[in-house]
Design goal:
289 residues; 8 helices; 2 domains; four-stranded antiparallel beta sheet; seven-stranded mixed beta sheet; alpha/beta; Alpha-Beta Plaits; Rossmann fold
Length: 289
């Protein structure tokens, strides 16, 4: 950040719903000589919790993100907030895991290169070498980590070591065809995003799009969710579908599915990186701009 440049921050919070929360937060920001540039909120009647995301800037001399964070802590404690206050200029550091399907990795690399995602892909880990040229062609380090019943524990230890060494904020499973064990899920809660097609659980195993074609499906789609130790049942961030019909052969059906997967994963990663996704029990609240 340039000397004298305004500090740009994002504050996200959830707390028990009560009168005056927005007033208290906005009043605090006024006291800190900050200007609110964006605000979204939601009060969930089912859980009686309130969710808020505020983007703001501050041009006061010598103001730092850490100083604002420290000043906000007493207010957060009084209202039992779960909160985060971050520097909006800092890009989210992402570790991508892949196997042999390259469409999601390609899409993330491209969107990063044109500035469409506020992320920095630190490296790519894979249990195969197929996509090494894709990553390295984009200037991103690629490492193969063998995964088998005998090596799974070591592979997961390597994953956690990489997260620590590269100061990774988010792990993205971009069609990584391996199941992460409980240790990894528990070590990175809310920091792993997975993408999978909508054909589960109807069409499992190999060639799901061939199975879908044989059954004459009319919709293909995708789900992006946070990873938990409960397989493919973590809190959903984003979903979408594309309509197909009898004229779609299997390759065209699969192509439509790949397109939806790329779009859904990109939106989920962007919203996470922009600090728009808040956990609400087993669900999420996505405070889109």
């Amino acid at each position: 950040m340039a000397i004298g440049a305004p500090v740009r921050c994002v504050l996200t919070l959830s707390c028990p719903d009560a009168h005056g929360i927005v007033h208290a937060v906005s009043g605090f920001l006024v006291e800190q000589d900050c200007n609110i540039t964006e605000s979204q909120q939601y009060a969930d009647p089912a859980t009686a919790r309130f969710f808020l995301r505020v983007g703001f800037s501050c041009e006061a001399p010598a103001t730092t993100v850490s100083a604002i964070r420290a000043a906000f802590a007493p207010l957060a404690a009084r209202t039992a907030m779960e909160w985060q206050l971050v520097d909006a200029e800092v890009r989210t550091r992402v570790l991508v895991l892949v196997s042999r399907h390259g469409h999601c990795l390609n899409d993330l690399l491209f969107r990063q290169s044109i500035g469409a995602l506020p992320i920095k892909i630190t490296s790519v880990l894979s249990n195969h070498d197929d996509l090494r040229p894709v990553a390295e062609g984009a200037g991103v380090a690629y490492r193969r980590v063998e995964v088998s019943p005998e090596t799974r524990a070591a592979a997961e230890e390597q994953l956690l070591t990489t997260v620590a060494e590269q100061d990774v904020d988010l792990v993205v499973l971009a069609r990584y065809m391996q199941i992460l064990g409980p240790r990894v899920c528990e070590a990175l809660p809310g920091r792993i995003i997975n993408i999978h097609h909508s054909l589960l659980p109807s069409f499992v195993g190999a060639n799901p799009y061939q199975q879908a074609h044989d059954r004459g499906v009319k919709l293909v789609g995708a789900t992006a969710h946070y990873v938990t130790s409960d397989l493919d049942r973590g809190p959903i961030i984003e979903q979408d579908v594309a309509r197909v019909d009898h004229a779609y052969d299997t390759p065209r059906l699969a192509a439509a599915g790949r397109d939806v997967e790329c779009q859904v994963l990109a939106r989920a990663v962007r919203w996470h990186a922009e600090h728009r996704v808040l956990r609400n029990g087993e669900r999420t609240v996505v405070l889109r701009g």
